[in-house]
Amino acid sequence: MEKQFGGGYILMVEDEPVVQANNKKILERRGYVTRQAFSLAEARKHIKAETPRAIVLDINLPDGSGLDFLQELRKTSNIPVLMLTAMGTQEDIIHGLEAGGDDYLPKPYDLAVFLVRINALLRRASLLPESLDIGSIRIDIPSGKAYVNNVDMNLPPKELSLLQQFTQHPEQMLTNEFLYEKVWGQKLLAGSDNSLKVAISKLRHKLDGSGFTITTAWGEGYCFERE
């Protein structure tokens, strides 16, 4: 048995017993601690009792949509989430990532690929500090909340992810392509930059009073800098 990567447990939210059994087997062989939820109600009970290290989340569940659950989760938490679902069209993948998923793996899938995705998800999460602080701005990573002068900015997931990128790269021009790929999880396509522009505009407004602003390099990208 390999040593478990990090602490905590992986919560698998899936209503198919065979899928649960196969995923549990390969993860626990590698030393991960897992818990199973066959419904969203069970998932909420697990999370309330103890925050998981990561979540593997199906979309079609007996008591609701995994996408709705994910959007609900993202209001209070930045737990890494791997979407694992039979809904595998490009549109489905976009919806899953936009709802707050960190990765997306359509069924049917190879268990070796599943394990690699879990390892990568946890590795990326472990590289983030508990908080990111710059001037009057503080981002609390575990809770997924950002503050200006200790006042909650009430940022939705995309704006929070953008702020994380900016605070990690202050005074640097970040290209549209870089930001879109980091926050939306895909290549920037024609017309997609409007979503980025809207999110940047909203975030810029919420930075009022922080001492920082986001300047635009038209056609190139954005820079997070002191006013």
Task: Explain how this protein is built.
This protein has helices at residues 17-29, 40-49, 66-74, 90-98, 111-126, 157-168, 176-184, 193-206, and strands at 10-13, 34-37, 54-57, 60-61, 64-65, 81-85, 103-106, 131-134, 137-140, 145-148, 151-152, 173-175, 212-217, 221-226. With 227 residues, the protein is α/β, with parallel strands linked by helices. The longest helix is centred in the middle third of the chain and has 16 residues, at 111-126. It is globular, with a radius of gyration of 18 Å. The N and C termini lie far apart (53 Å).
Provide keyphrases for this structure.
alpha/beta; 24% strand; 5-stranded parallel sheet; 227 residues; 4-stranded antiparallel sheet; disordered N terminus
Please indicate the percent range of residues in DSSP E strands (runs of 2 or more): 15-25%
Q: How would you describe the shape?
A: globular
Radius of gyration: 18 Å
The strand line-up of the biggest sheet is: 2-1-3-6-7
Q: Which range best describes the helical content: under 10%, 10-25%, 25-40%, 40-55%, 55-70% or over 70%?
A: 40-55%
Helix/strand structural class: alpha/beta
The average pLDDT score comes to 87
Low-confidence stretches: 1-6
Write the layout of secondary structure elements.
Elements: E1 10-13, H1 17-29, E2 34-37, H2 40-49, E3 54-57, E4 60-61, E5 64-65, H3 66-74, E6 81-85, H4 90-98, E7 103-106, H5 111-126, E8 131-134, E9 137-140, E10 145-148, E11 151-152, H6 157-168, E12 173-175, H7 176-184, H8 193-206, E13 212-217, E14 221-226
Parallel strand pairs: 1-2, 1-3, 3-6, 6-7
Antiparallel strand pairs: 4-5, 8-9, 9-10, 10-11, 12-14, 13-14
Helix pairs in contact: 6-7, 6-8
